[in-house]
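Same chain as my last thread, 352 residues:
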Amino acid sequence: MLRPLPDILRIDWPPTAAEPPRTAEDAVARAVEVLRQGGLVAIPTETVYGLAANALDEEAVAGIFRAKGRPASNPLIVHVADIAMARSLAGAWPATADAVATRFWPGPVTVVVPRGPRVPDIVTAGGSTVALRCPDHPLARRLIAEAGMPLAAPSANRSEAVSPTTAHHVLAGLGNRIDLILDGGPCRRGIESTVVDCTVSPPRILRPGPLSRDDLEAAVGGPVEWPAAAAGDSGEPVRSPGRQARHYAPKTPLEMPVEPARRVAQLVAEGRRIGWLTSRTDDPQVRSLAGSRNLMIVPMPESPDEFACRIYAMLHGLDQRGLDRIVVDPPPDTEPWRAVRDRLARAARVPE
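reply #2:
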């Protein structure tokens, strides 16, 4: 017997309102009931929509892996209401984790700390550390507080696919694999959180995100490093999600060529249907191709933050167009663009 599609509960909670509207209270109460019964609820955060389950219920967390088709070797981020809840899940609370959380929570940064005994193996992929984050979305935090439980919540999509930034993306990707969707509107940040390993000295960024290394160094009062090796090189369990070679990928093959205009011209000449994401719409090379048959040019922002906010939504939209290829201009190889370049490089990786 097929499961029905999940209900979508739309909640308009203006950022200026300290208390939630009645619709939010009713939606949170229903979501709490689903979570306490071991179900799966898609929730909005400021980064992307997450697929939430009780992080302390091993079987409920297993439901996340089944719904996403996620490999057991890929750990989950646990979402908490505040620092006190985070500390209750940690085996130790390093000073660097406290500095980052105090400065940026609620916000788009995840701290990796020693794992406490309450956290099931399935959450951490059997590792000795746990990744913790307090999301900057009032609906998500209210849900965690009302449920009285931390929530394991990776992105609410199928494994390796483009992350969802709207409730519609969640429904299109997961359908009846989940129990409920809380629709809090489009995500403000648009890409996943920065992940920083606070178990090493100096602390180390495992996944770039909205917060930069400069932001983190200012918070901890010292250097923050990038990892020297790819995930899995040490033979130890992976400490952070989002480090697979291929990830965040649309169904349509995506390229990020060094000379995008030349590549687009080649594909157009071959009769391919192309979607081209570019911020250089005034460039003569771009304008010369603008009238080409089967070419859709999508203007993109020149700001890294605005680009990050839009990129997943654009990829979701282009995936519905029946295209042969998506071409994206390579972003600048600078620190502000590092997270965007990371996501696009993984999305462009050819499956092995």
